[in-house]
Amino acid sequence: MDIRKSMLFFISPLLFLVSCSSDDQAVKSDEKTYISPIQEKEIYEIKQPAKVNVSRGLILSNMNNSLNINEIEKGLMNLSVNHFSTKKFYMQEGQYLDKKIISQWLDRKSKEGFGLNPPIKKSTGDVLEDEKNNPKILSHILEQNFINKENGEIEGMSLAISLNEFYDIKVADDKGLIYTGQVKVDSNDDNVNDVEKYGKEITEIIIKDIRNNKKIPNVPIYVTLYQESNKNDIIPGIFLAETFIPEGEYKIDEWTDINIKNYTFPSDSLYSLDKDTYEKLLIFKEDIQEGFKHLNPKIIGKIRYKDGKLIDLKIDVNVPLINDTELIALLQLVGTRINTILFDYVPVTVRIIDQKKDVGIVIWDPTEKQIYATPI
Q1: How far apart are CA 100 and CA 141, in angstroms?
Q2: Total-model pTM
Q3: Contact present, 172 and 189 (Cβ < 8 Å)
Q4: Over the stretch 279-334, which tens digit does the pLDDT of each residue have?
Q5: Between 275-291 and 324-337, two packed helices, what is the crossing angle to 10 degrees?
């Protein structure tokens, strides 16, 4: 047994097992498993045998970075629980909106009426300039299905309509020369989010197309609008608004704003919003950096607020080339110092990262009022 496994119970009273892999499969160690109530709350069981999304792979080419992809996939599932009960329904990857359907929606609007992205209204003869003047807004549509556990029938569908805040341009002229650039979609200061406005307009068309497609079950549809962050940002984008269309309906009566925003630590925007939390994080950061000066740890926080209230706190501690003994010591220090940033109802996750690989994790579970720590 290696040093990491032999010291697990010295770190925490319970072994907390977690995986940060793309498949979200639990890592097994010593054949003991502890699943936090944070994980258990409102999590869908996946319909077995699991099916892949019929538009599999398209999201990778349509969305600008992995942060946005992870956020839209997990976020859509989390938002869907308000409409499709985790007790009543299995979740299944989308089985109806295939690559052909989605790609057709992503095209620029043609004279025949196809495509949901803005057409080139007045061509200048300069392909790059034309793209900048008429940015594409719709970037992807993610589908998730919900299967009744008793009868095995699909009885719900959720859609996340992904929209560009920044349009990344890659276009070729008639000679085959490639031009690249970027433009902000909403560049005016009229206090109206043109991205959100456009998303609401095209959602009406998307729902009508779905209802008119006899191959797609006539089930209730939950829709949310997602605005991607810039491709080089270290935080994901945001969900803007949501609506619910009952079975057989296609008209949208109203939209509800989703006021969930992400911040990074350190940042001026977080300091302006929540000075108290910022200063707690600063103390935590300085304690960890002081305790492990020789490793020069880099600490970045990812903080989430809903309606102005803190709801989630994640911290990445990057320590290149940390050895097993140092990892145990760091986990112990984090487990002790995490008390400075505890909030009664806010989960806190601290990831220890060595050269982009997760090697340890510390979690504050506000449900059980306990801290769990383990190497990975």
Answers
A1: 12
A2: 0.80
A3: no
A4: 999 999 999 999 999 999 999 999 999 999 999 999 999 999 999 999 999 999 99
A5: 150
